[in-house]
TrEMBL record:
Protein name: IS3 family transposase
Its job: Involved in the transposition of the insertion sequence.
InterPro entries referenced in this protein's UniProt entry, alphabetically: HTH-like_dom, Integrase_cat-core, RNaseH-like_sf, RNaseH_sf, Transpos_IS3, Transposase_IS3/IS150/IS904
TM region(s), chain numbering: none
Integrase catalytic domain sequence ranges: 126-290
Pfam families linked: HTH_21, rve
Length: 295
């Protein structure tokens, strides 16, 4: 209908409004009502264009990973009171969408002779205080030089990556190095639970000795059950999608990309919905916990 009314507007000086409306079976009152609202439509179009530009900027800042919920949350954090359906419509019109996760291969190779630690979290991937529950796992990134293995530890209270290590191997020393980093920067409390799968790296004597040395408690999920370590698996899926699935030219380049993703984007800029605090970055969630504890 708007195309017909626009045609009448363009041709009215040649043929007259009454004739065109009668010819196209449009009520003259409808045409004049549409004409009167032209100013409002122009203003609305300009507002949509401005909002679409903001959304494009936020999309680029998120490395083209945010969907509607996080884009909407980012707008609200910056004082833009805008309807979520409007954001969804503009993102759809401009072809902006978040990433979708894929399944990944598992590195877990259990040591049949080792006795695994009990499962101390029972699929409860929440914590009320930082430094009391960590989840860890290993993944790999393809490079022309060969695999680059990455071990991480996430704090379940904040979902912040508090410790990580990278190497050309996935021996026990890799997860030990990541745990030492988590202990040094994560403010781990005595008896903090460190949960992982039953891979041989986590059931090794070297890792268990380090757990005892740091005064932590070890926890292991069942073999072959990704749901027992779902929080770590979810982080790997997120990293693989948002950092981009490709083959890096060398391990140094892959290391640099992982460092940038974790330190400058994931921990400090990527929004996550907290059940009590709303949309915050992991670093902001950690600060909020510290503020509440101090209070």
């Amino acid at each position: 209908m708007s195309e017909i009314l626009a045609f009448i507007e363009a041709e009215k000086t040649t043929h007259g409004v009454a004739f065109l409306c009668r010819l196209l079976n449009v009520a003259r009152s409808s045409f004049y009502a549409w004409l009167a609202s032209a100013k409002a439509r122009t203003a609305r179009k300009a507002a949509d264009d401005a909002l679409a530009h903001e959304i494009t900027v936020f999309d680029a800042a998120s490395r083209h990973t945010y969907g509607v919920p996080r884009i909407h949350a980012d707008l609200r954090r910056r004082g833009r009171r805008v309807n979520r359906k409007r954001v969804a419509r503009l993102m759809r019109e401009h072809g902006i969408q978040g990433v979708h996760r894929r399944r990944r291969r598992s590195l877990t190779r259990p040591d049949k002779k080792a006795r695994p630690a009990p499962d101390l979290i029972g699929r409860d991937f929440t914590a009320s205080v930082p430094g009391t529950k960590l989840v860890g796992d290993i993944t790999f990134l393809p490079t022309v030089e060969g695999w680059l293995y990455l071990a991480c530890w996430l704090d379940l209270a904040t979902r912040e990556v508090v410790g990580y290590a990278m190497a050309h191997h996935h021996r026990a020393s890799l997860v030990v190095d990541a745990l030492r980093m988590a202990h040094g920067r994560g403010g781990l409390q005595p008896g903090c639970i460190t949960h992982s799968d039953r891979g041989s790296e986590y059931t090794s004597a070297e890792f268990r000795w380090e757990i005892a040395e740091l005064g932590l408690r070890q926890s292991c999920g069942r073999t072959g059950s990704c749901f027992d370590n779902a929080a770590a698996e979810s982080f790997w899926a997120l990293l693989k999608e948002e950092i981009g699935t490709r083959t890096w030219p060398d391990r140094a380049t892959a290391r640099a990309e992982v460092f940038i993703f974790i330190e400058t984007f994931y921990n400090r800029r990527r929004l996550r919905k907290h059940k009590a605090f709303g949309y915050l970055t992991p670093a902001e969630t950690s600060q909020r916990h510290q503020h509440n504890l101090a209070a």
